[in-house]
């Protein structure tokens, strides 16, 4: 009787394959996370599932910040285009009014055009009045011509601006497909993460969701409040941030009932009287960069090389942040994600 072979442990190759499939944007096949009749591969360990879920959520959040940025850019360009179109309309109205005036002048000149100025001067009863009027006519005509040239130049400029705005809007309209694809990618990754979690027991799901990447528990106690030494704007920011603890993460949300990461930081600093850009990558350029050793409560702390995650430093190596889908605004250590730097708005 031959020796029975022991089942092989969960393979790093299998996990790497899953990660590669996710990075490539493909949908995970069920065979990568479940056993099949043909291959009785053991189910992934809790650590493997946790790693896959974290990777999927990290990729989803990066896409979320990109999606938010594209939407923000579109809104701004649409608003700019509206202003340009309004200016164009006003310029055209001015030109229309000027053309009416010039048309009246041309009609008057046509009515008197049959008699030369010398003859009209000979027959006028008041030569001084005629000469004064003729001078004024020349000045008026010159002034109107100058105004027409100016308005025509303005019209060309505004038409060019409108054409540029229309072109950008057309690009954005064409980019709706890209936005839709980005959204679908986000939803697919989140669905994959939920599917992985759905295969766990309730207790294991709670373990995955309650732990940060370094294995330490995070806190989302909505009853906590800021009692630290910060003053002024930073204190306002922190009081607001603490008041959001326990509220759910929702991608694209800026409050007041739910937030994504940059939605929370933007709302908190708005409570402190400072308007931040919408997405984390732009918030990186919204203040003074500070060294990790010089962090102060209220500073923005950024993570990952592409800066797709941001939180609010609260002191003692901790932050408040909106972590990911399925979790709530929480307090956790800043070293549980790849730390990049900090900004003081």
Topology (elements, then pairings):
Blueprint: H1 12-23, H2 46-112, H3 117-123, H4 127-174, H5 176-198, H6 202-210, H7 232-243, H8 261-271, H9 280-283, E1 288-290, E2 300-303, E3 309-315, E4 318-321, E5 330-333, E6 339-344
Antiparallel strand pairs: 1-6, 2-3, 2-6, 3-4, 4-5
Short characterization:
The protein is an alpha+beta fold. The protein contains nine helices and six strands, in the order H-H-H-H-H-H-H-H-H-E-E-E-E-E-E. It is elongated and about 100 Å long.
Key terms for this structure?
345 residues; alpha+beta; six-stranded antiparallel beta sheet; 9 helices; 6 strands; 56% helix; elongated; disordered N terminus
Describe the structure.
- The protein has 345 residues and is α+β, with helices and mostly antiparallel strands.
- The protein has 9 helices and 6 strands.
- Strand 4 and strand 5 form a beta hairpin.
- Helix 2 packs antiparallel against helix 5.
- The radius of gyration is 34 Å and the shape is elongated.
Widest beta sheet: strand line-up: 1-6-2-3-4-5
Our Rg estimate from Cα atoms comes to 34 Å
- From the spread of the alpha carbons, the general shape counts as elongated
Classify the beta-strand content into a percent band.
5-15%
Structural class: alpha+beta
User: What is the strand tally?
Assistant: 6
Described by strand count, sense and barrel closure, the largest sheet is: 6 strands, antiparallel
